[in-house]
Amino acid sequence: MTRPPLPPAIEPAELVWHDGVPESKRFGDVYFSRDNGLEETRHVFLQHNQLPERFSQIPEGGSFVIAENGFGTGLNFLAAWQAWQGHAPAHTATLHFVSVERFPLTRQDLTRALALWPELKALADELLLHYPPLVRGVHRLVLAGGRVRLTLFFGDINDAWQSLDFHADAWFLDGFAPACNPDMWLENTICQVRAHSKPGTTLATFTSVGRIRRALMEAGFRMEKTSGYGRKREMLKGILEAERPVQPERTGTIAILGAGIAGCSLARNLAERGQPVTLVDTDGPGAGASGNAQGALYVKLGVEFNDQTELALTCLTFAQRFYGNWRGQYWHPTGLLQLAHSPQEEDRQARFLQRNDYPRDIFCPVNQEQASALAGVPTESGGLWFPRSGWLEPGNLCKALADHPLISTAFGVEVSRLLPCNGQWHISMAEGSPIVADQVIICSGHLSPELIPVKGRFRLKAIRGQVTHLPTSAIMSPKAVICGNRYMNPSLGDFAVTGATFDLHDNNPLPASGSHEENIREVGSMLPSLFSSNSDKPRCKDLEGRVAFRCTTHDYQPAAGPVFDGEGACLDDLYLFTGLGSKGLSYAPLLAEYLADQLTGQPVCLPANLVKRLETRRLYKTDMAVS
User: Fold this and answer.
1) CA Rg, the chain, in Å?
2) In CA terms, which of 83, 125, 340, 458 is 20 to 30 Å from 44?
3) CA 487, CA 504: separation in Å to the nearest integer?
4) Sign of torsion, CA 25 30 34 39?
5) 144: left (phi over 0), alpha (psi -120 to 50) or beta
6) What are phi and psi of 213, to 5 degrees?
7) How far is 367 from 365, CA to CA, in rounded Å?
């Protein structure tokens, strides 16, 4: 018996191919009909869930949710996406597809399987471009410019349905046949189907096995047999009878306070879902901690694969996909090297590699010679090479994110207070008229506590960070990002950004020569070849740089979610998104996706264990009260 891999890796499917059709070696069953898998999908799942008609009736800014119990080759997903293209309304709406796969196909096998359907090639190519690495957990893929969102859970089906938060409009019950894969058709699994349904939810399945039909009826679905596809004489379809009227997804005005990478990412996310947003900031997009000329996209994965590490990994891989939209503009995927820059870090990386198994498309270990070749400068050690990471232009990116027809801006204003009034939030300004919104998200970094309408202290702190602009003429510029006790970026024109200091007890907002000296000393010890000689090192008094204040929490983990009062009750329609620390570029895209899911009532992109990790109430001191 093959031992399961170390976390976070997951065993891939083992396929055998018969006449070009993939079959599961483990379950001894085909992934789709040998006659015509695409037509079978259209007959069983699209037709018997009435998808074309239902797609066309979705209101503006609304969504439709399909759930499936076996992703396999993704054929069902692509067929639904194709139908969405042809029948979705002209206005903005979102197709959500939630699926689970215990033994996912490798990218190579998936490419071969989907090549059987030339008419789906454009969609298949986009899926393959975004297909996640084979690691356990939840992967959110944003496709078709945000019109299609795929939530893909790699792991056990019961774990998936217990940890994901969604309610399906339609189900594709399409695991391998019950005789081949009975675990997928257990009663508790069918009970989870009911738990993730709502009045009017439909389902369809290729099987007509009696015990499956009876279990679905006991769960509350009205079931009937109907004609199957091809040689399959019968199949099942059903509907959950309406016990109460279905409440429409909430819409209303939304205001976001703060235009850093968190606020701009959230504003853009909501706007692309058809939700108008007002973005409020004292200065403008990317003026605060997100305004550096360059920023590295990286996280430091923990030695133990726990919730904290899973959150960091999930955010990193999502961000790498997300920033691909700005490749060649503000995103530069040069690759990133995490150096084993000290004996302590070398030992940490050795323990990390011993206890974990990560796919090589996330990172691979490299020796000193390999590290030097990848970085383009001589290094003193090896490390971990992240081929899909790189660097961004955060300030320019924030401006681009905020530029959308559905994003209204209120820049150059100072918010003084938030007040609830008649079911809305009144955002008072130091000068001028207040802004009124149904929902408000505070994304103001280290200034967030001043805006939360709850008395008391929050476990948030501002940490000064200064970056230094090194003249390109004075350094041997790397061709990839190098991280250690500092990060060093490739050159951007006539300078390259290095940094940043970590000044716990310094509130000086201006660049200081001492901080430049510290950055040069630390990056020089990490990369002795960066400056050809001591005489080539730039004089600190001649250097330019920038100071910003990171917002961190007591446990150095981000906070995203509803705001609570001092007694633990949720304050209606008020949210907090802060505490991203020095990893805002890595965390912001996925956490913006998560909050947008919550605000629009759409399927949540994070599992329950990671949602708990982000809870805002952990930031509150015990002596809190409503303001």
Assistant:
1) 26
2) 125
3) 19
4) negative
5) left
6) -60, -45
7) 7
Residues 6+ apart with CB under 8 A from 302: 308, 309, 312, 352
How many residues are present in the chain? 627
Please state, in angstroms and rounded to a whole number, the distance separating the CA atoms of residues 582 and 393: 15
What is the H or E stretch that residue 138 is in? strand 137-143
Residue written as tokens 């559905």? 406
CB 586 within 8 A of CB 297: yes
Look at the alpha carbons of 477, 478, 483, 487 in this order and tell me if their dihedral is positive or negative. Answer: positive
Tell me the CA distances in angstroms from 397 to 72, 319, 330, 392, 534, one per residue in order: 36, 13, 6, 8, 35
Query: Which is it for the CA torsion 600, 602, 606, 608, positive or negative?
Result: positive
Residues ≥6 apart with Cβ < 8 Å to 141: 127, 130, 131, 132, 149, 150, 151, 152, 321
CB atoms within 10 A of CB 302: 17
Query: Which alpha helices (DSSP H) does 224-342 contain, by range?
Result: 261-272, 307-322
- Asked whether the beta carbons of 149 and 99 are under 8 A apart, the reply is no
pLDDT at 188: 81
* Token pair 């499936």 in the structure block, residue: 68
Mark the ranges of the chain whose per-residue pLDDT is less than 70.
1-2, 175-186, 243-251, 533-536, 622-627
Per-residue pLDDT tens digits for 4-55: 889 999 999 999 999 888 999 988 888 888 889 999 999 999 999 999 999 9
CA pair distance 556, 538, nearest whole angstrom = 34
SS3 (DSSP) at 139: strand
Encode pLDDT of 183-239 as tens digits: 656 678 899 999 999 999 999 999 888 889 999 999 999 999 999 998 788 999 999
Query: How far is residue 573 from each of residues 14, 252, 255, 415, measured CA to CA in Å?
Result: 47, 10, 11, 18
For position 627, what pLDDT does the model report? 45
- CB-CB contact of 55 with 148 (8 Å): no
Both tokens assigned to 549: 């204040």
> Torsion over CA of 514, 518, 521 and 524, rounded to 10 degrees?
-130
List, for residues 290-343, the tens digit of each pLDDT value.
Answer: 999 999 999 999 999 999 999 999 999 999 999 999 999 999 999 999 999 999
Start-to-end CA span in the chain (Å): 61
